[in-house]
Write a structure and sequence with these properties.
about 180 residues; mainly alpha; 2 strands; globular
Length: about 180
């Protein structure tokens, strides 16, 4: 990899990390204490536009910094790992299309794959937290499911946002980074 490509890659990771952080800062609170945010949409866009490892790393860094600065420091490592798992699910869906995303329906499929991974990870995390708090497995699992409406709303908003902005961003990035491979 040439030095200018390395610099471009670092700049794009930093850019998408900052956008993930900023997207997570835009919070719409829910009565449950959870909130809807746009960080997940940025992570999915990062994976689609700059690739799995770079996009997941950017998202993980963005979430990590957000958690550290907003009172969720104990959850920061989890969200770093979750970015790679959710990004990996998205990337597997991208591979189904041989890395050629040309239709909105394909973006939706990638978003659904990422959303399923996000949902499963969120249920596992909430269940484990319930068990740590002293609940038995079954009640912890059902309590975890009861907290999922915000996650489901985030998943749907992510799919909608990414479906709308992916192709215009891809076109803009191709114009700016002519020599760079975009999915």
């Amino acid at each position: 990899m040439k030095n200018d490509q390395k610099v471009q890659t670092l700049v794009l990771i930093a850019l998408f990390a900052a956008l993930t952080f900023s997207g997570t800062m835009i919070k719409i609170p829910l009565p449950t204490g959870a909130f809807i945010h746009f960080g997940n949409a940025v992570v999915l866009l990062a994976v689609l536009l700059i690739g799995y490892w770079q996009g997941a790393l950017a998202g993980g860094i963005g979430f990590f910094v957000f958690d550290l600065l907003n009172g969720y420091a104990t959850e920061a490592p989890y969200f770093l790992v979750e970015s790679f798992i959710v990004g990996g699910a998205a990337y597997l869906a991208i591979l189904l299309f041989k890395k050629k995303i040309t239709k909105v329906s394909q973006v939706v499929v990638v978003g659904i794959a990422a959303g399923i991974a996000k949902f499963v990870m969120s249920v596992i995390k909430a269940t484990v937290m319930g068990i740590i708090a002293g609940a038995q497995v079954k009640p912890a699992f059902w309590a975890a499911l009861a907290t999922m409406p915000a996650t489901v709303i985030n998943i749907f908003s992510t799919i909608i946002i990414v479906s709308i902005v992916y192709f215009p961003l891809k076109k803009a990035m191709r114009a700016i980074f002519r020599g760079r491979q975009m999915i």
